[in-house]
Automatic annotation (TrEMBL):
This is Glycosyl glycerophosphate transferase. It is found in: Cell membrane. It is a peripheral membrane protein. Belongs to the CDP-glycerol glycerophosphotransferase family. InterPro entries: Glycerophosphate_synth (IPR007554), TagF_C (IPR043148), TagF_N (IPR043149), Teichoic_Acid_Biosynth (IPR051612). It comes from the Bacteria. GO terms for biological process: teichoic acid biosynthetic process. The keyword Cell membrane applies. GO terms for cellular component: plasma membrane. Pfam families: Glyphos_transf (PF04464). It comes from Levilactobacillus hammesii DSM 16381. The keyword Transport does not apply. Keywords: Cell membrane, Membrane, Teichoic acid biosynthesis, Transferase.
Length: 674
């Protein structure tokens, strides 16, 4: 017996769900659907209201009933179960889904969406506490000399009236509006702004004005997903260039400027040559990959001397826990052979520091990996890398999980894979690991479930954090001097996560700081400096010129622990860096400026973000800048009860000897294997 969610209809202010029944015996007199909320385990049972046929039934509900007062909870995810209560058949059948809906705005601050989990089971997701001044659109494009916007024209199936598109000129502090009259699909509008109407050499933000009930509104237009696949550049008849991009808060910005001249276009010819070079390079990479696969299939015999291979972040760095283990290993057991697997970009660093290395994806790299005794890495090796039986693979991983991982990601939206394939590859790779390092019981449970991991867990803490526990005041001073940080100023570290929706197009990522550097400098520049640690994909998009001596960009500094040690406080959002920074018992401030949109549209969290964090949450720029001053006055969090409860849960097992414990584990394996 099966039940499948196959449709959604709107009946006045109610929602009507349609279910397809397969092999469910009649009669249907007592059929009902039970909704089970995943987090609270609350349940609501609603009877089937209409039998369309022996295969199709419907039920009506008020979506507002699927939200209820719950401390700190603003998102509700309901599973559906067909409730059979017939004479000879009783039980629950979980409802599958073949219907995925767009978001349906219920009120100005709440919406619902029908979805499915990784196993294809139906979910009714209710989202509340949405910002009242935001209006989410479906798409935005530059087409036929006009800016075209497509978005919803109804709230809870009631029409939004008097809708107008508005552009506000950032420089001139002025605005202009265009009426929306054209409706496309049911519940959607299409609005256009002629590009000839745009002010010359301007930067403008997009808003929408409308009337909902008796309320006149002006809302900032937002687009939660990326701009990929939409037309974001156009040259007008008057030879003007128009560009659409997204701001840090997912708002839409429209820029108008002079189009490139002929000499400027000719100057871009080398980039086309560069494109051909990239294509050739891509083809060579594919050929090399084929060659690598063949090399791994050849038989190899282990080196007579114990040989340890280290790799960090796929060879992009010589850092993190593998580096901490390597440094201690070379001190205690210099007679073993140690080799780093690196990208070519790390050759200079290795040569300057006397670190033996092998370049990834070379024949020597294949031979070295295949003949080694141990692999120690903080990320996954490619699936085509063959692991011999005599190799012990130690996975240190690279952080305490906040965002969901592996099997726990219910819907994988990355290009080139499906949820099922992604999960299968994750489990296959994880179970090549002979031992996995864990920093606490919380992580151990997640690693077991998210990785499908059945081998040995080494719950010893992360070796990279030994430095945080063992460093002295003199060490901190030396790091500041090395980095050029003034010794007489406080240090504020800003380390946000990378957002999936910052992807613009292949090879290009966007980023804009979500607070004013001018305001930071005005309020704190005399007594403090700001250190930026951004994701490597978007670090090149930063421009901090004009803020020398106040703002420092250390996004590419190889050792983030150095930045923790010199910092008096941390500002982050969804990055797991706060788990490590908490070892120092210094204040942490959370600034999730797009929390609801990030949580709704991207990945979920393991922790309750609104309850379990070791610090306060700033919801807007004003709160953030005020709280920075408060936090800098409280340099030690040892007396903060909530912070120390977090510390005991996540940091307490690490005694500064994690690296030594891993070294001892490896040596025991060597001795055991002779």
């Amino acid at each position: 017996m099966r039940a499948i969610l196959s449709g959604l209809h709107h009946k006045k202010n109610l929602q009507e769900l349609e279910l397809e029944l397969i092999d469910v015996p009649e009669p249907f007199d007592d059929l009902a659907v039970t909704f089970l909320e995943k987090q609270t385990k609350a349940s609501i049972t609603i009877p089937i209201s209409k039998v369309v046929s022996a295969q199709v039934v419907r039920l009506r509900l008020n979506a507002s009933d699927l939200q209820f007062p719950a401390e700190g909870q603003s998102e509700f995810s309901w599973e559906l179960y067909l409730n059979l209560q017939q004479q000879n058949t009783r039980g629950l059948i979980q409802v599958e889904s073949e219907y995925l809906s767009d978001r349906h705005q219920l009120t100005l601050t709440s919406y619902y969406q029908l979805n499915s989990d990784a196993n294809g089971m139906a979910l009714f997701n209710m989202h509340t506490e949405q910002a009242e001044d935001e209006f989410a659109i479906n798409a935005i494009n530059l087409q036929d000399d006009a800016l075209q916007v497509i978005g919803p024209s109804r709230i809870n199936n009631q029409p939004i009236t008097n809708q107008r598109l508005v552009l506000k000129n950032v420089q001139a502090d002025s605005s202009a509006e265009w009426p929306i009259t054209h409706m496309t699909l049911h519940g959607l509008f299409t609005g256009t702004i002629p590009l000839s109407d745009l002010a010359a050499d301007s930067t403008q933000q997009l808003f929408i004005r409308s009337t909902v009930g008796n309320q006149d509104l002006e809302q900032r237009v937002v687009l939660a997903k990326s701009l990929a696949g939409q037309v974001t550049q156009a040259i007008t008849v008057g030879h003007r260039l128009v560009i659409i991009d997204k701001r840090f808060d997912n708002g839409i910005r429209v820029q108008e400027m002079a189009a490139p001249t002929l000499p400027q276009r000719l100057a871009n010819v080398p980039s086309k040559v560069g494109g051909a070079t990239k294509l050739l390079s891509m083809l060579m990479d594919k050929a090399n990959l084929f060659y690598m696969r063949r090399l791994f299939k050849r038989g190899h015999r282990a080196f007579d001397q114990p040989t340890l291979i280290f790799e960090s972040f796929g060879g992009r760095q010589v850092s993190d826990s593998p580096y901490a283990i390597y440094q201690l290993f070379t001190q205690l057991y210099p007679g073993f052979t140690f080799i780093w697997s690196i990208d070519r970009s790390q050759k200079k660093f290795c040569k300057e520091n006397g670190i033996p290395y092998v370049i990834r994806r070379t024949s020597k790299w294949v031979r070295t990996l295949e003949k080694a005794s141990f692999w120690i890495s903080n990320a996954r090796f490619p699936s085509w890398v063959k692991k011999p039986n005599y190799v012990t693979y130690i996975q240190t991983w690279h952080g305490t999980p906040l965002k969901k991982l592996g099997l726990d990601i219910e819907n994988v939206s990355m290009p080139g894979t499906t949820t099922t394939k992604y999960h299968a590859n994750f489990v296959r790779e994880a179970n090549r690991w002979d031992a996995l390092v864990s920093p606490n019981d919380y992580s151990t449970r997640i690693f077991r479930s998210a990785f499908g991991f059945n081998n040995q867990i080494l719950k010893v803490g992360y070796p990279r954090n030994d430095e945080l526990i063992n460093s002295t005041r003199e060490d901190v001073t030396a790091i500041k001097q090395q980095l050029g940080i003034p010794l007489d100023k406080k240090v504020v570290l800003y380390a946000p996560t990378y957002r999936d929706n910052q992807f613009a197009e292949k090879g290009k990522y966007t980023f804009e700081l979500p607070f004013s550097l001018d305001e930071f400098r005005t309020r704190y520049g005399k007594d403090a400096v700001l250190v930026l640690r951004m994701h490597y994909l978007i670090s090149n998009a930063l421009d901090i010129s004009g803020y020398e001596g106040v703002v420092f960009d250390f996004s590419n500094h190889p050792n983030i622990s150095d930045l923790y040690l010199i910092s008096d406080m941390l500002i982050t959002d969804y990055s797991s860096v706060f788990f490590d920074f908490a070892y120092l018992k210094r204040p942490i401030l959370f600034y999730p400026y797009d929390y609801h949109m990030y949580k709704d549209e991207l990945r979920g969290f393991y922790l309750d973000y609104e309850k379990d964090l070791p610090g306060e949450i700033a919801h807007n720029e004003t709160q953030l800048l005020d709280m920075i001053g408060d936090k800098l006055k409280t340099p030690d969090m040892s007396d903060n009860q909530k912070f120390m409860a977090f510390y005991q849960r996540f940091c307490s097992i690490d005694d500064g000897l994690s690296s030594l414990k891993i070294v001892n584990y490896v040596v025991q394996q060597i001795e055991k294997n002779g």
